[in-house]
Amino acid sequence: MQNIATYDFTGKKAIVRVDFNVPLNENFEITDDTRIRAALPTLKKVLAGGGSLIIMSHLGRPKKVDPKFSLKHILAHVSECLGVPVQFAEDCQKAQEQAAALKPGEVLLLENLRFYAEEEGKPRGLAEDATDEEKKAAKAAVKESQKEFVKTLASYADCYINDAFGTAHRAHGSTALIAKYFPNDKMFGYLMEGEIKAIDNVLKNAQRPFTAIIGGSKVSSKLAVLENMLDKVDNLIIGGGMGYTFIKAQGGQIGDSLHEDDLMPNALEILAKAKEKGVNIYLSIQTLIADAFSADANTNIVPSNQIPAGWEGVDAGPDSLARWKDVILNSKTILWNGPVGVFEIDKFAQGTLSIAKDLAEATEKGAYTLVGGGDSVAAVTRMGFADKVSYVSTGGGAMLEALEGKVLPGIAAIQE
Ligand code: AMP
After folding, report:
1. CB 3.0–4.6 Å: which of 86, 89, 116, 267 could bond 107 by disulfide?
2. pLDDT of res. 393
3. pTM of the model
4. Ligand 1 centre distance from Cα of residue 217 (Å)
5. Which helix (H) or strand (E) holds 274?
6. What is the Cβ-side half-sphere exposure of residue 344, based on CA atoms within 13 angstroms?
7. Is 215 a catalytic residue?
8. How far is the centre of ligand 1, averaged over its atoms, from the C-alpha of 393 (Å)?
């Protein structure tokens, strides 16, 4: 594996997998270009080093060629961000001539990789009543044609850079399989390097005390993260909707709060394991309750295990927040995944805002703070704290899988 900082790009063609899966409005205008800007340091490095660029990405989840999901919509903006004209290849599998003609400093953007089933390697268009046998045959066929698909992409370039952390948890053609065609010329882009370092800072090299704050809606979607954290952290703060499953499992009254009865045994098991491993668990002790899931609901503050029927917990109460703040400010490493309340409604966002403030304060005091995973990232960004923590991850699903302790195929393919 090579290092992007030291690799000699002079006269080389670099094929770069980026995550340009940006949100578009109904006029196909970009509403948030964060993902494009995140890849610029890598793309500019290649151009400044005397190389040319073949950029590849997916956009949305098309199941066939579909103009709605064309990367042409973002061509002008990519060009503007890079400060050079960007050519477009209408078909990512038929770009041989355009790629071959690229001169140093020139850029080619390939059409959406997911216009081809081979990118994901999953069969498409199977009849609903297909037999298992037919499904198996279709899968084998797409896996076979995937080899040619990947080989064609690889043939365009001299080196491969993966800078798409958002898809690093997928073993797709452009994110993982292509790497084997560049045994001596594959590397991470700067964004990927940053994400990997952030993951290592919490999972491998954490300074103690290490606290993880895990919130969000459901235990079921974070069970593997919680279990992995038990082997890593000193303190585990469990907030948000998922906390009520733990409180109910311990015999608390949670009224109409969100919970998963079938996961109560798992919740108890996590509490028991934490005790065994000496991990301190901090559930919410006090809750803001509402009589409806709306901004004009009546609210009250009660102990988290005494929520009356007809009411539901929508945010952490001041006593919970004070206790959590104490834990956070006494930590040297803090990982935050998932909001501790229904932060989309301003009235129920105080708890999540308070955690964001605590993280900013801890960072200022010298702690390493990582915010990873979809909604907590949206929360710190919306609340204006994104530049006050050590690192904000760009990949929701990928970060979640990394926190579960899984090896991400997009990372492994470069490191192998
Ligand atoms: P997740 O995608 O699992 O990280 O969950 C994020 C979602 O959890 C957000 O949409 C929050 O509104 C929601 N959430 C957080 N706390 C609660 C709660 N007490 N009740 C219901 N939903 C919640």
Report:
1. 86
2. 93
3. 0.93
4. 4
5. helix 264-277
6. 6
7. no
8. 19
Q: Which amino acid makes up residue 222?
A: K
What digits encode the pLDDT tens for the residues 362-374? 999 999 999 987 6
Residue 333: how many CB atoms within 10 A of its CB?
23
pLDDT one-digit tens code per residue, 25-34 = 999 999 989 8
Examine the residue annotation and report whether 124 is marked as an active-site residue of this protein: no
Q: Which of 49, 60, 252, 397 is catalytic?
A: 397
Exposed, middle or buried, 132 (CB in 10 Å: 0-12/13-18/19+)? exposed
- Mean pLDDT for all residues in the chain: 96
For the stretch 127-148, pLDDT in tens is: 989 999 999 999 999 999 999 9
In this prediction, residue 375 carries a pLDDT of 83
Single out the residue of 294, 284, 293, 295 nearest to residue 312, CA to CA.
293
The yes-or-no answer on residue 374 being catalytic is yes
CA triple 112-113-115, angle to 5 deg: 75
* Residues in contact with ligand 1 (CB, 6 Å cut-off): 216-218, 221, 240-241, 258, 313-314, 338-339, 341-344, 374-375
Which residue's alpha carbon is at the smallest distance from atom 6 of ligand 1?
216
pLDDT 10s digits, 210-259: 999 999 999 999 999 999 999 999 999 999 999 999 999 999 999 999 99
Q: Calculate ∠ Cα 248-340-275, nearest 5°.
A: 55
Q: State yes or no: pLDDT of 377 exceeds 90.
A: no
Coil, strand or helix: which one is 186?
Answer: strand
Work out the angle at residue 273's Cα, subtended by the Cα atoms of residues 270 and 275, and round it to the nearest 5 degrees: 110
Burial of residue 172 (CB within 10 Å: 0-12, 13-18, 19+) is: buried
Query: Which among 147, 80, 78, 66 is positioned nearest to 108, based on CA atoms?
Result: 78
Residue 382: predicted pLDDT? 84
Token pair of 345, please?
Answer: 């409604």
Distance 252 CA to ligand 1 centre (A): 20
- Residue 222 CA: which ligand 1 atom is closest? 3
**What distances in angstroms separate CA 64 from CA 56, 134, 198, 218, 347, one per listed residue?**
17, 20, 36, 33, 42
Q: 191 is written with which tokens?
A: 């964004």
The catalytic position among 218, 273, 347, 388 is: 218
**C-alpha 229 – ligand 1 centre gap (Å):** 20
